[in-house]
Amino acid sequence: GGEEPMPARGCVVGPHPEHVLLEGVVPFPAEFAERYRERGYWKGETIADMFFGSVRSFADNVAVVDGEEEITYAKLGERVLRLAGGLSRLGIGRGDRVVVHLPNVAVYFDVVFALFELGAIPVFALQAHRRTEIEYFCSFAQAKAYITIDSCEGFDHAALAREIAACVPSVEHALVVDTQDDCREFGKLYGEPLSHQERCNPADVAFLQLSGGTTGKPKLIPRTHDDYLYTIRESARICGLSSESVHLIALPIAHNYTMSSPGILGCVYAGAKMVLAPSGSPDVAFPLISKHHVTSSSLVPPVALLWLNSSVRDEWDLSSLQVLQVGGAKLSQEAARRVKPELGCTLQQVFGMAEGLVNYTRLSDSESLVVSSQGLRISPDDEVRVVDDDGVDLPAGVPGNLLTRGPYTIRGYYCAPEVNERDFTLDGFYCTGDIVSRDERGYLTVTGRKKDQINRGGEKVSPEEIENLLLSHEAIHDASVVGVRDQVLGEKVKAFVVLREDVDPGSVSPFKLKKFLRQKGIAGFKIPDEFEIVDEFPETFVGKTSKRAQRES
Ligand code: OOB
Question: Which InterPro entries does the UniProt entry name for this protein (predicted)?
């Protein structure tokens, strides 16, 4: 009765336009899409529809806390529409790719939801990425725009923006969020709210997420509005989020885990409050938990270990904390067992992948299940197979290769037909490269990995990518990069190098090699923690480098 509905969007929202398939995307086969719609997984809603639904339903709730700034859902909706107006006037619209390269700051929400409202396609770079990666994302995705911040953690992103604008022809706009300048160029984009929307179709690709690499270059993952929103609704429910929840965002904001498991989109869906932290370290996170009565957070295992082992833990009131998600890499049982007694909250293990499939232990699961398994799939229609190397299905309890297909798992990487042939079966299962065992109820335990990838505390490193960069060094004849065990990170990155015959070994040091890689412009977490100069690599009996021997050396 009688109340004016709030005009959350600039105009009356009409029906969605026709679906447009982005070139280079492998679509879901029609019979699967039909089944997922019939079963109510795909509801025919866009991420922007969901966002503005929450802006209406939770208008006066605080959505984002960033330092001293608190932004309500109503205010966020207004900021998003005004920025969408500005971006639209620059010519950014439906289907345009925009590389987003921002740290954990409130403006991230404006940018991402404005792009969704325009039907533009964000490409999610991590704050840690540097020139080599950003240039690659921009050119590979043929991005029309690149959005970053002036500087962060001592790195001059504004200079990077100038370089990208100069060297990637598709990039018409390199936009820099200015936190220091007086001119506030970026702020000027917030103008008249977007008044007409071209919008997009729920079956369209919503964004391109990055894969944890196994190849020379990172692969891009196309996720649709329909498929992603399904995981968001279910994740919010499985993680117990409500409009009373206060979720600490302590991991890199653009990672798939932080976006959706349950992540910022799960929070927006539930109308929860999100408290932004620049890092998960205890001296940053604990004061925020105590000040804002944080009820849940999502961490990777090394950060969970920092929380468990922190000397300042008793100085802060953490009693509001109810649930702690830990995922991205394997959490040891010893650490898992300590969470409840020492932090006073329920542990929820998360085993997910940007390609799709996400598993959670449930909040009502027994303590022994929660500490020993990485959880159960989200959907009854997630098809999970555990097979031997010949593709034969294995019985419960026997570890094997995890293959999966389902209502939110991609059918192929973006513009990557050759990789797709390797990583997807003919009937559309994604070969995850993970070795798992499954119990009778479907709970998975991760026991190993088949893919050539290093999981450095949740951050994924492709050995091939680093080997290729090392091979471009004039003193290096051959390079092999492997993961070696580390107490805290689980694995760290180690490079073995063979020098050219005429090179004096004294002229090459780990310090110099690190500097060389840094100058190439790559994310810091990919730079090997250790180097070893060797005369030759151990070989397998077929004459290939034995990475196993190197890992164990
Ligand atoms: C998440 O996504 P990605 O795409 O960075 O990495 C996926 C890979 C998995 O294939 C697996 O190898 C590993 O990361 N992984 C785990 C794990 N969670 C992820 N390995 C062991 N135990 C776990 N709990 O990492 C990601 C995406 C969504 C939610 C959570 C994590």
Answer: AMP-bd_C, AMP-bd_C_sf, AMP-binding_CS, AMP-dep_synth/lig_dom
Give the C-alpha separation, 493 to 332, whole Å.
19
Give the C-alpha separation, 261 to 298, whole Å. Answer: 8
Of the candidates 202, 233, 210, 197, the one whose C-alpha atom is nearest the C-alpha of residue 93 is: 197
To 10 degrees, the CA torsion angle through 211, 133, 454, 124? -30
Distance from Cα 92 to the centre of ligand 1, integer Å: 33
Report the relative pairing of strands 145-149 and 97-101 from DSSP bridges.
parallel
Q: What is the ipTM metric for this complex?
A: 1.00
Of 126, 257, 353, 361, best ligand 1 pocket probe by most atoms within 8 Å of the beta carbon = 353
Burial of 32 from C-beta contacts in 10 A (0-12 / 13-18 / 19+): middle
Question: For ligand 1, is residue 432 a contact (CB within 6 Å)?
Answer: yes
Say if ligand 1 is within 6 A of residue 238 CB.
Answer: no
Distance CA 104, CA 93 (A): 25
Strand 69-72 and strand 383-387: the pairing is unpaired
For residue 423 and ligand 1, the question of a CB distance below 6 A is answered with no
> How many angstroms is it from 303 CA to the middle of ligand 1?
15
Could you read off the pLDDT of 358-383 as tens digits, one per residue? 999 999 999 999 999 999 999 999 99
pLDDT of residue 182: 63
End-to-end CA distance of the chain: 73
476-515 confidence digits (pLDDT tens): 999 999 999 999 999 999 999 999 999 998 889 999 999 9
CA angle 100, 104, 109 (to 5 degrees): 60
Distances in Å between the Cα of 277 and the Cα atoms of 237, 293, 294, 347, 483 are: 24, 14, 12, 20, 29
403 C-alpha vs ligand 1 centroid, how far in Å?
14
Q: Which residues pair with 326 in a beta bridge?
A: 299, 349
- 11 backbone dihedrals φ, ψ, rounded to 5°: -155, 175
- Residue 505 DSSP one-character state: G
Residue pLDDT, tens place only, 276-291:
999 999 999 999 999 9
- Establish whether residue 358 lines the binding site of ligand 1, counting it when its CB lies within 6 angstroms of any ligand atom: yes
Measured in Å, residue 353 CA sits from the centre of ligand 1 at 5
- Give the count of alpha carbons within 13 A of 281, CB side only: 4
Identify the pLDDT of residue 6: 47
Among 425, 451, 430, 447, residue whose Cα is nearest residue 438: 447
Which residue type, as a one-letter code, is found at position 397?
G
Predicted pLDDT at 529: 98
Helix or strand holding residue 385 (H, E): strand 383-387
